[in-house]
Amino acid sequence: MSASSSIEWTNSTWNPVTGCTKVSQGCKHCYAQRFAERFRGVSGHPFEQGFDLKLWPERLELPLSWAEPRRIFVNSMSDMYHPEVPTEFIWRVFDTMSKAHWHTFQILTKRATRLRQVAWLLPWKPNIWQGVSIENMDVAWRADELRKVPADVRFLSLEPLLGPLDELDLTGIQWVIVGGESGPGARPMKREWVRTLRDRCQREAVPFFFKQWGGVRKADAGRRLDGRIYSEFPGAAPS
After folding, report:
1. In angstroms, rounded to a whole number, what is the distance separating the alpha carbons of residues 146 and 132?
2. Which of 163, 164, 158 is nearest to 176 (CA)?
């Protein structure tokens, strides 16, 4: 599955893997699972299997056919480093990203330990950005694992932000995204949590992107923080 994206910090999505399983509190109201399970059993649909993990080798070379440079969120409907994704398949995804050097690829994972374990096997290039998702201090260790990965751009997606991250170490981090949870059952995000992160990013010269306040109706809540929209990117991002 690949498409233009409504996600504010990317242009397109590319899903050579779909499906996942939950690993922490940030997964509780997974938007991807909610979407995919609507189509379970629909014959011929890309999510006929619901949110069960599936590899799509026929999609591996798709970015090579996109001539215009873009930011591409890799596996928006899965986790590249899920234990059921073979290392050889991850390598093939990286091989495509290396060849498609005119794009910027953005990868996010909650499985930071496996990321660190396989990272040395992969062909990292400057256009491959690697991030981890952190929802509260219980999983802040994911940033420590990320710092061991040889990506030119390492980033943190603090979404859904479920608690304060005042002690989060930003050493070796080139970008921070913050967002609240959206959709049914969305858990609240406090304004002071966001302000503290913004202020720390400004002090430490880390680009800060505020994605959304979230809520059941996220469009109504918007993405302004203290009257301003924060849409900062690392310097290497295409315009």
Report:
1. 7
2. 158
- Measured between its terminal Cα atoms, the distance across the chain in Å is 24
pLDDT in tens, 10-29: 999 999 999 999 999 999 99
What percent helix, strand, coil does the chain show, rounded to 5? 30, 20, 50
**Domain residue spans of the chain:** 69-229
Is it true that the peptide bond before 164 is cis, omega within 30 degrees of 0?
A: no
pLDDT tier for residue 218 given thresholds of 50, 70 and 90 = confident
The residues, any chain, with a CB within 8 Å of residue 127's CB and separated by 6 or more, are: 97, 100, 101, 102, 103, 104, 105, 236
Q: Is the pTM of this model over 0.90?
A: yes
Alpha-carbon distance values, 232 to 50, 144, 206 (Å): 35, 23, 9
Give dist(CA 37, CA 135) in Å, integer: 24
Residue 78 is given by DSSP the state B
Q: Tens of pLDDT along 94-131?
A: 999 999 999 999 999 999 999 999 999 999 999 999 99
Burial class from Cβ neighbours inside 10 Å (0-12, 13-18, 19+) for residue 230 reads: buried
Tokens for 112, please give them. 């930071």
Report pLDDT for 139: 98
Tokens of 107: 């990868």
Cβ-contact 167, 191 below 8 angstroms: no
Q: Examine the pLDDT at 1 and tell me if it is beyond 60.
A: no
